[in-house]
Amino acid sequence: MKHSRATFLAVAATAAFTLSACGGSSGELVEDPGAEAEAEGGSGGEEGGAEDGEYDIALVSKGFQHQFWQAVQSGAEEKAEELGVSVTFDGPASETEIDAQLQMLRSAIERGPDAIGFAALDPEACVPLYEEAEQAGIPVVEFDAGCDSEVPVNISKTDSMVAGALAAEHMAELIGGEGKVGVVAHSQINSTGVERRDGFVDKIEADYPDIEVVDIQYGDGDHLKSADIAKTMLAANSDMAGLYGTNEGSAIGIVNAVNELGMEPGEVTIIGFDSGQAQIDAINSGVMAGLITQDPQGIGRFTVESAVQVIEGEDVEEIIDTGSFWVDQSNIEDEEIQAMLYQ
Amino acid sequence: MSALLEIRDVSKGFPGVQALQDVDLVLDRGEVLALVGENGAGKSTLMKILSGIYARDTGTISIDGEQVEIAGPRAAQELGISIIHQEMNLLPHLTVAQNIYIGREPRVGPMLQERALRRQTQALLDEIGIRLRPTAVVGDLTVAQQQMVEIAKALSFESTKILVMDEPTSAISISETEVLFRLIASLRERGVGIVYISHRMEELREIADRVTVLRDGRYVDTRDIGEVTDEEIIAMMVGRELSAHHEDRPERQGGDAEVVLSVRGLSTRGLLSDVSFDLHRGEILGFAGLMGAGRTETARAIIGADPISAGTIYVRGEEVRISRPDQAVRRGIGYLPEDRKRHGLMLEQDVAFNVTMSSLAQVRGPLGVLRGGKARQLASSFVDALRIKTPSTRAMVKNLSGGNQQKIVIAKWLARDCDVLIFDEPTRGIDVGAKEEIYRLLHDLAGRGKAVMVISSELPEVLRLAHRIVVMSEGRVTGELANDEADQEKVMALATKNIDEGDVA
Amino acid sequence: MTESQAPAKERQTSDEGAEAPPEQSTGGWRGRLGQGLQQLLAFGTLMALMLFFAVASPNFFTVSNLTSILLATAVIGILAVGTTFVIITGGIDLSIGTGMTLCSVVTGLLLTDMGLPLIVGVLGGIAFGALVGFINGFNVAVLGLPPFIATLAMMMVAQGLALVLSGVRPIYLSGVPGFQQIALGQLVPRIPNAVLILFALALVLGVVLTKTVLGRMTYAIGSNEEATRLSGINTRRWLLGIYALAGACTGLAGVVLASRLSSAQPQLGMGYELQAIAAVIIGGTSLLGGRGSILGTLIGALIMSVLINGLRIMAVQSEWQTVVVGIVVLVAVFADNLRKRRAEGGGRA
Lengths: 343, 505, 349
Fold this sequence. Notes:
The complex is a heterotrimer of chains A (about 350), B (about 500) and C (about 350). Chain A has about 350 residues and is α/β, with parallel strands linked by helices. Chain A is about 45% helix and about 15% strand. Chain A folds into two domains: about 5-155 and about 295-320, 3-Layer(aba) Sandwich (Rossmann fold), CATH 3.40.50; about 160-295, 3-Layer(aba) Sandwich (Rossmann fold). In chain A, helix 3 runs parallel beside helix 11, helix 6 (about 160-175) crosses helix 7 (about 190-205) and helix 8 crosses helix 9 (about 250-260). Helices cover about 35% and strands about 25% of the residues of chain B. Chain B has helices spanning about 45-50, 75-80, 95-100, 115-130, 145-155, 175-190, 200-205, 230-240, 295-300, 325-330, 340-345, 350-355, 370-385, 400-415, 430-445, 460-465, 490-495, 500-505, and strands at about 5-15, 15-25, 30-35, 60-65, 65, 80-85, 105-110, 110, 160-165, 195, 210-215, 220-225, 260-265, 275-280, 285-290, 310-315, 320, 335, 420-425, 450-455, 470-475, 475-480. In chain B, strands 6-9-10-3-11-12 form a six-stranded mixed beta sheet, sandwiched between helices. A six-stranded mixed beta sheet of chain B has the order 18-19-20-15-21-22, sandwiched between helices. In chain B, strands 2-1-4-5 form a four-stranded antiparallel beta sheet, covered by helices on one side. In chain B, helix 13 (about 370-385) crosses helix 14. The radius of gyration of chain B is 24 Å and the shape is globular. Chains in contact: A-C, B-C. Chains B and C meet through helix 1, helix 10, helix 11 and helix 14 of B and helix 1, helix 2, helix 9, helix 10 and helix 14 of C.
C-alpha cells in the first residue's frame, strides 16, 4: 500500500485520540485519515474552516472506509482547488450508523458554512435537519443518495436504476439470455442497495423472460457474510448461471465463495459493482466477468460545482446523472476507465 | 373456641423423599409456639406449605376452625398468614416506607403519594412501637432494624393474625434481640399467634409458651416449654441423648507454647483501632463481642481481604506483609468466613472441587493439568476423616446440610495444611447435633497443634471452646480473659464497654 | 452486615441448601446429568435441524454445502470458544468482534508494510489479541471495572484503531505467499484448514477448561469470586490469564478471517461478538457464570451456522433469518432455565 499509515509506534498516541472520537461521534475520525490519504504527512492543520474570501462547503458523506468515498472526496477537493473554495469531508465509520451521520450533519449546520453537501444514509431521518439548514439560510445540495425533502437544490448521483439495468443487460448477454441468476445485495434499506437491485431485477423481468432471479439475499456488504451467502446460493442451485453483487463487499464475497468452492473461472458469471483492487484483480484473472463502476470523482466534482453555483445564485440542474460504466477485461486498461477505478 | 391455626396430618413428598409425614401443629391466639428440629427436619417445608409456596399432598389446615386451601403466597396473605424469612426480602436502595408498602403505595392516578406513604408508615411504626424513620434507607440499617422493617411489613397487612418467624435472631445482637422480644410480647397482646423457629434454647425459654418438635419430617411432640428441659428437647430433636459434656470447659493452656500468630496495633480506616493479641500453637482463642465490634473485620484484615491502615503481623516471630488472601494462605493462615455460602463455598460445584480449592498445587501435574483421581482421593480422605455426610465427592455442595458444608470449608484448609485457622461463626445455622461435632473437631485441631481463632456471637459457645477469650468493642480489644476466669457477665461487661468515654475523657 | 443486600437469587439457593437433608442430596449427579442433558439437547437440536433441512432441500446435505457450513462456523466458532472462558467467569467480552478485526489489520501490516515472514505475522496477530485481552483483564480484575463496560470501551477502541492503523482501507494479502492456505488450504482433503483450526482449538481448550488449574479457576471465579479469593487464590492473576487467553483466540480468529478474505477489512467485525456470545449461550453456558463447556459452545456455533445456511438454502428472506436465530437463542436460554429449575427441585427434595 502506497499510502502513509500510522506505524505501530503511533498506536499509543492515536489510541487516546480514537477513544475520544468514539466517545463523541466517530466523525472526528474522518479528518485524520482523510487528510492522510490526501496529503502525505500534512494532516494536522487542515481543520475545515473557511479562510477569508473563500466559500466554505461542508460535505457529509455516507462513510469513508470504502475507497468509493475517498474517490468522491478527492474529486471534490480537486474541484474545490480549481474553484478556489474550501471543503470539509465527513462521514460515519460504517454505513449503518444513521445516527452518527445525522450528528455530523447537525454539526455542519451549526458551523454555518456557505453550503452543505449531503449523501443520505436514510431518506427520512434527514428531513428535519434539512429544515433547520433552510432556516439557517444554508443551501443544501445532495450527492449519491437523497432525502425525501423539498429543501435540497439538486443531487449529483449515479442513477442506480440505470446502473442496475446496465448490469442486467451485460448479465443477460454473458449467460446467453437464459438461466438462473442470484443477487447478493448490500442493503434492503438504503436507496443505492434498493435501486441497484431493482434496476437489475426489473430489467431482467421486463426484457429477459428466460432468465430467473432465483434468490436475493443481503450481506450488509460484509465480505465474510456475503461469501457465505453466495456459497449457499450456489449449493441450493447447482445450475446457477450468474451472480450479481451490488457493491464491492458483496461482489468480493461472491468471488471468494467461487474461489473457496474451487470453481473454474467463468463457471458462473459474476458481475460486481463499484471498484477496488480486489475486483480489478478478479476481472484480470477472469473470475469476475465485469463490473459496473460509477464515477465517484465526478460525483465529488459535480457536488462542489453545484454548491458553488447555488451560492452564487445560478441555476443548477435538479438531477445530475454522473454516469455508470461497464468495465471488463477488454476496457479495463483504458485511460478514462482507469480514472474511475477508484482504489 | 377453635384454635387460631390447626394443621393436621399434613404430608408432603418430593421425588425420592418424604419431606413431611403426618405432621400436626396447633397455634392459639396470642401464643408464641416454638418450632424446633434439626436442619432437614421439615420446618421450612411446613412453613412453605403454610405460606402457599408448596402445595401439601394430604392433610388439612384450618384457620379459626375453618378448613382453608392456601393456593399461593397471595392467598396466604389474605388468610392472615405472614412469614418473615431468615434471609430478608427487602430492597436495600429503597426507604423503610417504600419497602413496607411496596406494590401498595398510596397513589393518585399514576402518581405516587410519597407524603401520604410516609404518614401511613409512621402511624404503623408508632402503633407497633418500632422506632425507625420511614425515610431511612433500608440498606443503611442494621440487620436487626431490617428485621423490624420485615415485621412492620408483615403487620401492615391489616389481616395478619399468624406470624411465622424463621430464626429471627440468627444475625442480630443481644440488645437488639431484647427489642425484638418486646415487640413479640406486644404482638401477642394483640392476639397475634406466632410460630417461632430457632435453634437457641435460651431464647425459646424466654419467649415461647409451647414447643413443637419435628424430626426427619415427622411430628414428635408438643410440650409446654416450662415442663421440659433443654436436654429433653434436644433428645427429641436428635432422637438420642447427647453426651452431656456441656459443662466441660477447656483447661488453661500453658503460656509457653510457641506464638504462631502475633498481631500488633492493627487498625483499619473504618473501624479497627490498635488491635493486638497473640495466638499460640495448640490454642483455641475465642473472640467475643457484640455485632459490629470488629471481630470479623479483624480476621479479614489479618488475611489481607481488606486493607489495613496500620499494624504489624508476625507469623512465628517473623514480620510478614499480607495484602491479599493468597499471601495469607502462603503463610499458613486459613479463614473460614462467617457467611460460608457467600464467601466460603462454590455451591454449584462438587465436594472435591471445593475441598481441593486451596491445594491445587498438590494435585497438579505438568502444564497445570489437574490429576482428577488424585484430587478425588484427597477429597475423599477428608470426607472420611471429618465424617462429611455426602453421597460422593461428586455431589453438589449446595445440596448438603449446613454442618456438612461447614466441614467442607474446614476440609479445604486442612487439605492445605494451614497452621492458623480463623473460624468466623463456625456453627451459625448448624443444627445441634452437628454443632457438637464441629466443637469436637476444633478441639482435635488444637490438640494436633493448630492455632485456632474462633469468632462467635454465642457466649456459651465461646466459653465452651476457647482457652482464652479476647473481647472486642467498637473496633478495639477491651479485654482478654483466661477461660477459668471468664463467665458470661464478665464477657458482656467488656463487650459493652464504651471505650471512647473512658479513653477520650 | 451486608446479608440483606445479597442478590435475591443467591439468597434463594442458600435457603434451599440449608434445608436439604444430606441423605437425599442426589443433586450432584442430577446436576451433572443436567449439564450432560443440556449438551445432549443442543446436539439433538443440531441433528434435528440438519434432518429438517436435509428433507426440506435436496441441496442442503451435500459434501460441498456441509463444508461451507463448517467453514462459515470457523471464525465465529473460534471467537466463541475463547469467550466461553470469559463467560464462565461470569464476565462478558464485547470487544472480540472489533478486536478480531484489529488483529487481522495488525497481521496485515506485519506481512505487507513490514514485509515480515508469515509466521511472525500470524503469531503477531495472535499475540496482539492476547495483549488486547490482557488489557481487558487488567481493567476488569485490577481496576475493578464491570466487564460489560470495560469491554464495551475496548470494542470501540479496537474499532477505531483498526481504522486508524489500516488507513481506513483494506489491506490486501493476496501477495503474501501461503497466507491464504492458513484458512483455505486443505491438510485433510475437502476440509478447509480453518475448520481444522477451530476443532483443534476446541479440543485443546476443552482440555484446558476441564483438566487444568486455569480451567478450574475459571469455574471457581464464576461460581463465587469472593470465596475463591478467600480460599487464597490470586483471582486477579487468573482473570488476567483468562482474558488474555480469550484475547489470543480473538487474534487467531483475526488471522483466520484475514486469510479467508485474503485481506484485512478494517470495517468488519462489529456484531460478530454478539453472534459468538449467542453461540456460547445456545451451547448451554450460563451468563451468570460457573457453568458451561467448550463442546456446548462448539455445538452452539454449529447450530447457528446450520440454521442460517439452511434458511438461506431455502431462500428465506434475510430479515426472517435474523428473527429465527433470535428465537433460537431465546429457546436455548429458556430450556436452560427450565433444566436448572428442575435440577434444583430435585436437589431440594
